[in-house]
TrEMBL record:
HTH araC/xylS-type domain: residues covered: 159-247
Annotated TM spans: none
Stretch list, region Disordered: 1-26
Protein name per Swiss-Prot or TrEMBL: AraC family transcriptional regulator
């Protein structure tokens, strides 16, 4: 479930559980769907595992967690799941804006939620899928198959402009400029962002900027340079945004090297 923590090496070939090499390990690999990844997370062992923050990233996930298929919606702040020591979770994280076409509901319906899949899809279908996932040693691959099949059967395509919207907002373009480039008014852009990403365009820009900043910081870039490169006014602005969205200081989320 660790959608916002440091990216580790790709999942190794073979069963999805094999991607986790040690307690607290996290692995991911590219999925069959463009921009999506399959990830595997093992909670630390011991009597009281440390909290594992899930940071906002604009994405929606299909999870195999605790023997149940669950949907994780786009978060607006850090989420701390309750996990058992050594528990393994597997997820398929979709590219920003892709989730609604898979799950059949606007992204804002799932915002800041963890929803059992049977609340979105027919119960008998989810029961069959749950049995299939439970009976395999590669749940991540089954999650991919579920999503690929669902997209083939989807009633309609995802917003074709979603990638351009996300890319432009992620680069720091003004909302009015993005709306003009897409050929819509700001109000319609806001509605389309809510449906595709779960956020309005300003919140989406903040989340995508955070994702970019954390990627740079994890790569070893000094915080001041991160702030400048990611589009913050200064390092203090970066620190405030990390604290607001991630729920902890930048030095906790990405300790300095």
């Amino acid at each position: 479930m660790d959608r916002g923590t440091e990216r580790a090496a790709d999942e190794r070939p073979g069963p999805d559980q094999g991607a986790v090499a040690d307690p607290g390990g996290y692995r991911e690999r590219a999925a069959r769907l463009p921009g999506a990844v399959v990830w595997v997370k093992r909670a630390p062992g011991g009597p009281a595992p440390a909290p594992q923050r899930v940071l906002p990233d604009g994405c929606t996930d299909l999870l195999w967690w605790g023997g149940r298929l669950t949907v994780a919606g786009p978060d607006t702040s850090a989420y701390t799941p309750a996990v058992r020591p050594g528990e393994i979770s597997v997820g398929l994280r979709f590219a920003p804006g892709e989730g609604p076409a898979v799950f059949g509901v606007p992204a804002h319906v799932l915002r800041d939620q963890r929803v059992p899949l049977e609340e979105l899809w027919p119960r008998d279908l989810v029961d069959r899928l749950t049995g299939t996932v439970a009976g395999t040693d590669s749940p991540g691959r089954v999650l991919e198959e579920i999503a690929v099949h669902r997209l083939r059967e989807a009633a309609g395509p995802a917003d074709p402009a979603r990638n351009a919207i996300a890319a432009a907002l992620g680069r720091g373009r003004a909302v009015a400029e993005v709306a003009r480039d897409v050929g819509v008014g700001e109000r319609q852009l806001h509605r389309r962002c809510l449906e595709a990403f779960g956020y309005g365009p300003k919140m989406l820009a903040r989340v995508l900027r955070l994702v970019r900043a954390l990627e740079l910081a994890r790569g070893g870039m000094p915080y001041a340079d991160v702030a400048a490169r990611a589009g913050y006014a200064d390092q203090a602005h970066l620190a405030r945004e990390v604290k607001a969205l991630a729920g902890a200081p930048l030095g906790v989320i990405v300790p300095p090297r």
